[in-house]
Amino acid sequence: MNDLEKSNVLVSICCTAYNHEKYIDDALRGFVEQKTNFEFEVLIHDDASTDKTTELIKKYELEYPNIIKPIYQKENQYSKGIPINRTYNYSRAKGKYIALCEGDDYWIDPLKLQKQIDYMEANPNCTFCFTNGKILDVQDSKKNRVFIPFSKENEQYFYNKNKSYDVGSLGLLGFIPTASFVFRKLILDNPPKVYLKKYPAGDMKLKLYATAKGYAYFINDVTTVYRTNVRGSAMTRWKSYNSEQLIEHNQGYIDLINDINEYANFQYSEELDKLKAGFEASNFLIKKQKNFLKQKKYREWFKKQPYLIQIKIITSLFFPNFYNVLKRTMKLNHSNLK
Q1: Which of 24, 61, 130, 319 has its CA 20 to 30 A from that of 17?
Q2: Beta carbons within 10 angstroms of residue 281's beta carbon
């Protein structure tokens, strides 16, 4: 019998960290304070941090040697294009379930894991489980708000209660807290090309792929905190993209949605086409193509945007000089227009 077979670990918490000195203590404390009737492990990958992140992880490793299981890199692996969780964390996970939380996010509900695992153990067809959370802007703490619904566009898919989702409805729900993700490890066995391909956002790929293997379940509790505007984060990097990079970025999402649709045997084409329309519209806006709003699916997308966004879209297309003034003064960019 190998170590995996002997293990009593039910959940493997996978965490990636890089220069998270200001935040990693919150993440690790949120893990070890979980109250569960099962064993869990924390697989944390420190990607050659140059601040005190490594030192803080080692402190927890000494205090919780049976739970905290780190990898300390001497060379940064992300910069080499290596998928960190898939390569270094998922591959050593002993749990039946995998939970995610990056080193700059954290958990605030000590019963988070227990709630999610209780449901998934009782419902074997559920392959993905998530919760609500808070968004904390590190540049302005007054901007705290609840994560879901993220915008007016996805309000109609939020029911303010526990709810099951299929791939189509989950996609239309929009951005959900990655730090709340729990999925069955078995979905990683013999994965298809849609899982192995690289897309702009691995969290979107994972939630759609995991849900396509069964269904997703939302627990309407605020259990996590997502920090935004963290220096060096993916979201922060995307905000600095030029037009060419944004077009390529959006096309990556479009490719992902098409691939998921094919993987799901086109059962959710109607919903996924609506999801895709936002990324397509963003590229039309970047290219200053005015006629796209004549098409029904883009008119429908436009009508679901907040009134202020509608004004920005019309201004950028038909009054570009005025829009450029607004863009400079309000620091707008086309990544907002999705």
Answers
A1: 130
A2: 23
Token pair listed for 166: 């299929």
Q: How far does the chain reach from its first CA to its final CA, in angstroms?
A: 51
Residue 237 parent element (H or E): helix 234-239
pLDDT in tens, 47-106: 999 999 999 999 999 999 999 999 999 999 999 989 999 999 999 999 999 999 999 999
Examine residue 320 and say whether the peptide bond preceding it is cis (omega within 30 degrees of 0). no
Sign of the dihedral defined by the CA atoms of residues 89, 176, 39, 53, in that order: positive
SS3 of residue 313 by DSSP = helix
Residue whose C-alpha is closest to residue 305's, from 176, 174, 159: 174
Secondary structure class of 191 (helix, strand, coil): coil
The whole-chain average pLDDT of the chain stands at 90
pLDDT tens string 93-148: 999 999 999 999 999 999 999 999 999 999 999 999 999 999 988 887 666 788 88
Query: Angle between the 296-303 and 269-286 helix axes, to the nearest 10 degrees?
Result: 80
Q: Name the DSSP letter for residue 166.
A: -
Joined tokens for residue 119: 């449901």
Number of residues written out for the chain: 338
Max Cα–Cα distance, the chain, nearest Å: 70
Report CA-CA distances (Å) from 277 to 60, 172, 318, 336.
45, 11, 21, 14
Strands (E), 47-152: 68-72, 97-100, 106-107, 126-137, 145-146
Distance from C-alpha of 115 to C-alpha of 300, rounded to nearest angstrom: 37
How far apart, in Å, are the Cα atoms of 229 and each of 136, 175, 226, 328? 9, 16, 10, 19
Q: Identity (one letter) of the amino acid at 311?
A: I
pTM to 2 decimals? 0.89
